[in-house]
Amino acid sequence: MTKAADRGAIAIVLHTHMPYVEGFGTWPFGEEWLWEAIAGSYLPLLDVLDRGAPVTLSLTPVLGDQLAAPGVGERFLAFVHDMRAETHRIDAEGCRAGGRDHLAAELERAAGDYARAADRFECRGGDVLGALARHAAWTSSATHAVLPLLATDAGVRLQLSAGIAAHRARSGEAWRGGFWLPECAHAPWLDPLLEEAGVHATCVDLTGVLGHGDERHLRPIASAAGPLLVPVDRAVMDLVWSDAGYPAHGAYRDYHHRTTHDHRPWANDGSVYDPARASAQARADAADFVARAARRVAGGGLSVCALDTELLGHWWYEGVTWLEAVVDEAGRQGLALVGLDDALAEAAPAPPPPAHQGVTTWGTQRDLSTWSSPRVADLAFAARHAELRVVAAGTRADERAVRELLALQSSDWAFMVSRDLAEPYGRERAAAHAAALDAALGAPGAGGPHLRGLAPYASTAALLAP
Question: Which parts of the chain sit beneath pLDDT 50?
Fold first, then answer.
């Protein structure tokens, strides 16, 4: 294994991603999601990362595309200064009029979160992308496509080359080959294409292959084609990311119970939210997490706890507080918290398990059903059909057609449908990109509406690779 893993270590990997919503809708579905993630997750997390927390950050190119788009800063500030200030005021007034002064006071306190987010944003010169990119060790495919669902090697090469080029341009040439497979969707036939693109390590979810809690999750695996396959460790992840995980504690803010204007002044136990109580709980849960993780690796090995960045701060309001406390607790309890690239540089990988022959993901059933079940089969087949058409067109497919294909291939549209999150929005987006692709292939070079800042490093040359 590694020097750190010989005595037991944990790597926290934060996968930072947002579907391309900038410029596509507002409330309840659309770019408001991006503004909330900036305010609640990215800016608070940057404060922790800037203090040197040894956390591995992956940043998807499609999120970077949105953060780089013209006018994003102005619209974000308008959102936090105007919309969020006003909606908190209206809801607080309504609570007071109904005799619920404690709820009103919590709403007024919470409004300050957005004012502080604006201050953080302006102190960074409005450059959230640059601040995140400095910490982003890992990249991903151009638009978060589920790569095993793509129809051709050329389509995979297009997603890989556009995503890696974007990362190199934004984060510098120090990339060490870490690549987040969208949805942890892996198939062995991808490995040669990953290695060809310069990918040397990627995370996989082998829970369905090895079994929950198996010690083999604590050691990277050598693929036949070259890239290290790094199992994520659900025995540790589930402490956070499960129905009974830490965010479900009664003291934490209830994400689902909302006011008229989408604010959350309640705790999970139904009481009025108390930030001091919740912060104390976050510190207690951080201590518990570190103690359990230390027991998990007491015999050696590397536990990889992979989480969506947006869970911290946005979905789980106290998540960034918890993460900061985890960093402190790891030092106090003597648990090695390591960057994943550093740990893998010293790795002595294991051979692949014989059972690992098919597709694995971190989705429902650890397979592709979230993105290709009967409920969303039409989306999967439409994307594959579109890919075959673009690949067949080759260099006759113009930039607009390529970018619409990349947009159509995003895993997010099917996810929204399968998980009942925003089915109309997901279907509308997929249908619109398919129609725009049809128009682009029907009249190459004719111009037309641009897909804003999506995939600026995409090139048709990837479609011609052998």
Answer: 1
Residues whose CB is less than 8 angstroms from the CB of residue 125 and which lie 6 or more positions away in sequence, other chains included: none
Residue 83 backbone dihedrals phi, psi, to 5 degrees: -65, -50
Nearest to 189 by CA among 225, 139, 230: 225
Q: How many other CB atoms are there within 10 angstroms of residue 96's CB atom?
A: 15
What Å distances lie between residue 254 and 29, 138, 250, 400, CA to CA? 20, 31, 8, 42
- Give the three-state DSSP class for 186: strand
**Given this model, what pLDDT does residue 451 score?**
77
Query: What pLDDT shows up at residue 449?
Result: 53
Distance CA 182, CA 184 (A): 5
Instruction: Check: CB of residue 85 under 8 Å from CB of residue 111.
Output: yes
250 vs 232, 269, 291, 310, CA distance in Å? 28, 4, 21, 21
Amino acid found at 456: P
Q: Which CATH class is domain 3-364?
A: alpha beta
CA atoms of 230 and 405, how far apart (whole Å):
29
Domain 367-464 has CATH 1.10.10.10: no
Q: Give per-residue pLDDT as tens, 254-270.
A: 999 999 999 999 999 99
Residue 5 pLDDT: 61
Residues 295-337 have pLDDT tens digits of 999 999 999 999 999 999 999 999 999 999 999 999 999 999 9
The predicted pLDDT at position 275 comes to: 98
Rounded alpha-carbon distances, angstroms, from residue 178 to 207, 216, 345: 21, 21, 11
Same topology between domain 3-364 and domain 367-464: no
Which phi-psi region, left, alpha or beta, contains residue 366 (left: φ > 0; alpha: ψ -120 to 50)?
Answer: left
CA distance 455 to 344: 29
Q: What is the pLDDT of residue 452?
A: 80
Q: What is the pLDDT of residue 24?
A: 93
> Counting every residue, how long is the chain?
466
The domain ranges of the chain are 3-364, 367-464
pTM to 2 decimal places: 0.96
Please say whether the beta carbons of 170 and 60 come within 8 A: no
pLDDT of residue 226: 85
Q: What are phi and psi of 250, to 5 degrees?
A: -60, -25
Please tell me the distance from the alpha carbon of residue 110 to that of residue 83, in angstroms, as a whole number: 14
Q: Vertex 118, ends 307 and 106: CA angle to 5°? A: 75
Enumerate residues 6+ apart whose C-beta is below 8 A from 94: 259, 260
Buried b (16+ CB within 10 A) or exposed e, 331-341: eeeebbbbbbb
